[in-house]
Design a protein that fits this description.
It holds the Pfam family TetR_N. It comes from Marinicrinis sediminis. Keywords: DNA-binding. This is TetR/AcrR family transcriptional regulator. The chain has 298 residues and is mostly helical. Helix content is 73%, strand content 0%. The protein has helices at 3-19, 26-33, 37-43, 47-70, 77-94, 96-104, 112-137, 145-164, 172-193, 201-208, 218-234, 239-256, 263-273, 281-294.
Length: 298
């Protein structure tokens, strides 16, 4: 991003946090940047456009940190989620004004484009928490993934409030480890007692409609199948189970190689795969499920 544009965004965040969005004028932002009002308008069409750019700027910083950690293949699932939560708190703290801006005033519903982007942020963040929980605990937590996502997100937000509003000093690494340990206890309790989940796919669907989630291609699904085959070969599973899985995966691959893959066949194979007790199998199956849902026709 251009240096001047970044400067305007950061000055605007500080003023919005201090005075509120509606009480701050473009003229004031320009004066704080040491430039003319016209110069600000050369980068942003309106104050609403500037506010949208602020959310986009922050969201790119936030997701960029999480993505870089996710791509570190040296980390196991537990260390990965710890470092990602740690990164969240570091981003929160280093961009305190952005959080205060949201707490100061929430004009989102009056500004449709802003409201839509904030809804997208919320949905995609929830999706990230859900995947992180499944990655950490495996198939045993699938029934409670949405509930665990909500609980973890809530804990992060409340501690963030202590840090931002009360200026409580808490080491980011310490709190990240602590929250993951809390989630391990919660997950163990849910799996042991097996209560009826509060949230399910139907209930979270209205929120998730705002998310702009990548839809997998057939080639990406094939790559996921290859990874699953490697997982089956490397881990110590029952030979008969591995043979059954490989047979199902062969049918899936053959169907995906057809000019027009048949949705009914793939859904049948998917149903068989989802009954598996193989640890972490769901992360390999998920792309196939999304492909069937978004790309294929009956």
């Amino acid at each position: 991003m251009l240096e001047k544009k970044t400067q305007i965004i950061e000055e605007a965040i500080a003023l919005f946090a201090e005075k509120g969005y509606y009480q701050t004028t473009i003229q004031e932002i320009a004066e704080h940047c040491g430039m003319s009002k016209g110069s600000v308008y050369s980068y942003f069409e309106s104050k609403e456009d500037l506010l949208l750019s602020i959310f986009q700027y922050y969201y790119e910083l936030f997701t960029g940190r999480l993505t870089r950690i996710a791509e570190d293949t040296s980390l196991d699932s537990r260390e990965r989620i710890i470092r990602q939560i740690e990164a969240m708190f570091e981003v929160f703290e280093s961009h305190r004004d952005f959080i205060l801006m949201q707490m100061k005033e929430k004009p989102f519903k009056n500004l449709s484009e802003i409201y839509e982007f904030v809804s997208k942020m919320r949905a995609e963040t929830f999706h990230w928490y859900t995947n992180a929980v499944i990655d950490l605990f495996g198939d045993s937590i699938l029934s409670y993934a949405y509930d665990c996502s909500t609980i973890l997100h809530g804990m992060v937000n409340e501690y963030m409030g202590h840090i931002i509003l009360d200026k409580t000093e808490i080491d980011s690494r310490r709190i990240a480890v602590y929250l993951v340990e809390c989630m391990e206890d919660i997950a163990a309790g849910l799996v042991k007692r097996r209560p009826q989940p509060i949230l399910n796919e139907e209930l979270v669907q209205p929120m998730m409609e705002h998310a702009d989630l990548a839809k997998p291609t057939i080639e990406q699904v094939k790559q996921s199948i290859d990874h699953l085959k490697m997982h089956l070969a490397e881990a110590e599973f029952d030979n008969q189970m591995v043979e059954e899985w490989n047979s199902i995966l062969l049918v899936v691959e053959e169907e995906l190689n057809q000019p027009v893959p048949r949705k009914v066949i793939l859904k049948g194979m998917l149903g068989m795969l989802k009954t598996s007790t193989i640890p972490h199998a769901q992360e390999f199956i998920a792309p196939l499920e999304r492909l069937i849902e978004h790309h294929l026709h009956d």
